[in-house]
Amino acid sequence: MTVARSFSSPGGVRHVVVIGAGAVGSATAIEALRAGLRVTVLEPGEPGGQHATSYGNAGWLSSHSVVPPALPGAWRKVPGWLADPLGPLALRWRYLPRALPWLLRYLASGWTEARVQRTADALRTLLADAPALHARLAAEAGVPQLIEQRGLLHAYRSRAEFDGDALGWRVRRRTGVQWEEWPQDELRRREPDLDARYTLGIFVPEAGHCRDPGRYVAALARHALDTGAERIAAHATGFRIEGGRLRAVLTDTGEIACDAAAICAGARSGPLAAAAGSAVPLESERGYHVVVEDAKAGPRTPTMVADGKLIAHWMDGGLRAAGQVEIAGLEAAPDWRRAEILHAHLQSMFPSLARPASGAVTVKHWLGHRPSLPDGLPCIGPAAATPDIVLAFGHGHVGLCGSARTGRLAAQLLAGTDPEIPLAPFDPARFRTLVPNSACFNAKAV
Predict the structure, then answer these.
(1) Mutual orientation of helices 399-415 and 113-127 as an angle, nearest 10°?
(2) Which parts of the sequence belong to the FAD dependent oxidoreductase domain (predicted)?
(3) Are 252 and 235 in contact (CB under 8 A)?
(4) What is the DSSP string of 83-116?
């Protein structure tokens, strides 16, 4: 992996443009400032706003989320995914021709347990101490109360259901993840509101969660500005590269002269990566959430249930349930039936929610785009056209969790220092890349 080590800015202070002010982009900006770089953040929207992916996620800082979504035998489920538009993972028929190459790579990545283990080993290096890293960032940004480390719970209806997930837990154990088993009596004591059909809990003490991801990302972005970053509200459209060196980021309002750039634009990073010579198979795993603002029952510990494939826990704005995967691209209209399914699952998990004590219950729905690569690993590394451009996106289901260390890694690459963990598994060059011949590369506005 090539790391740029020479600076062209006067005085030797490298000017970097961070494209995107989501969780990864904001962490990258903070860490780049810490490394002594000059930082410009390019973000057209309000950081942490409802348009942002992290705004509506489940808030889990699940350092044990190292198992990729595709596991051996997943190909057998494809007909069901196509037949059930409201299942936990759904494919819209009209989008299938475009998604098929990604889907085939997705299935191949989990074809054997050995492949799954390699992915898990790599992800563990990225996620292992995520709660502590986020606690540090939150404290620096003045919102320490938003990060908690009280563990996370997986609830199963039976021992047999847990055994059905044995491969995933076996893989986790090999990476060093430890957990506690809560038998039925202990689960009832700890989670009195949880439906009685759940008889086994798997509690992971090391994990944490965020009480308000949107507010947290907004605080990180504000902290970057308070500590010296500049923000420009514009869309990135490409790059001007001369002699193998980045000279400017192109935007819809003009050029930004710079020495380096980081692409942290989430699910919309693909065209920019291609403009930097790295064509990567990025797809949106569309996810939904529902928030019950006036809920009177819910989990004591943030909880995922195996039968519903959703996560439920208290946010500062109410009880949130998040989950579902829908492959339909960035532009398709939401199917709010999927959010209604989450609400129904939530009421099933906590039966008293279906019987509100009094008055109307306020329920809010949301849709966001998880930036996902088919092998379950993000891209973190230099672009093919020039090492002055760093790719940092594609975290799928672990974007918020992995953002803290990814920001550190991206900043280390931007500063020309050696990354703190091996980046070979995340190298964008693992996908076949083509370097354009033109010296000025353009992408659709991002």
Answers:
(1) 70
(2) 15-413
(3) yes
(4) H-TTSSEEE-GGGHHHHHHHHHHHHHHTSSHHHH
Q: How far is CA 193 from CA 208, 334, 355, in A?
A: 21, 31, 13
Please write the tens of the pLDDT for every residue from 368-408: 999 999 999 999 999 999 999 999 999 999 999 999 999 99
3-state SS, residue 420: coil
C-alpha torsion 341→342→348→352, nearest 10: -120
Report d(CA 84, CA 93) in Å as an integer: 11
Q: What angle do CA 355, 359, 362 make, to 5 degrees?
A: 85
What are the residue ranges spanned by the domains of the chain?
15-429
- Phi, psi at residue 410, to the nearest 5°? -60, -40
Amino acid at 355: R
DSSP-derived secondary structure for 321-337? EEEEEEE-TTTSPP-TH
CATH of domain 15-429: 3.50.50.60
Residue type, 333: A
Secondary structure in 3-state letters for 153-183: EEEECCHHHHHHCHHHHHHHHHCCCCCEEEC
What are the residue ranges of helices labelled H in 193-241? 213-226
Write 352-361 long-range contacts (CB < 8 A, 24+). Answer: 352/193, 352/296, 352/297, 353/292, 353/295, 353/296, 353/297, 353/298, 353/319, 356/294, 356/296, 357/296, 359/294, 361/292, 361/293, 361/294, 361/295
Phi/psi of residue 279, nearest 5 degrees: -80, 110
Residues of the chain by 3-state class (helix, strand, coil), percent to 5? 35, 25, 40
pLDDT tens track for 240-283: 999 999 999 999 999 999 999 999 999 999 999 999 999 999 99
CB burial readout 208-228, b (16+ within 10 A) else e: bbbbbbbbbbbbbbbbbbeee
The pTM (predicted TM-score) of the whole model is 0.93
